[in-house]
Amino acid sequence: MLLIGLLLLMLEIRFEHREVLAERWETYIPLVYCAGMLMLGALGLYAWDRWGRVLLLVGFGLAFAVGALGLWLHTDGHPARSVRRVLIAWTLPPGDNGGMKPQLSGPPVMAPLAFLGLGSIGMTACARRRSSRH
User: What pTM was estimated for this model as a whole?
Assistant: First the structure.
């Protein structure tokens, strides 16, 4: 199921990055990661009991780097300020834009953090060993 989540995330990112793919090479990073993890996922599941679990553990660990880099890029190097702006939106009354024009707000600040979530779930699943019963 986690690999299906990566596939859906890759499809969404491809759609959301459709305009900037021709302008910035960095927009390919999450797409390449997702595609690579889908391939590694198939291999890892096939060889789970030998080396596949470790392969996927490392792959899902890379999701943290992809998510952190994405957060940095989505916030133009100012993640704390941008996350604060997103969190302040919870204090606004419904319908109030807080003085921001939606078309000028830039890329979604928190979206890259989806990689941290998927990476956490994947690493947890890969790190757990089955207890052997004799």
Answer: 0.86
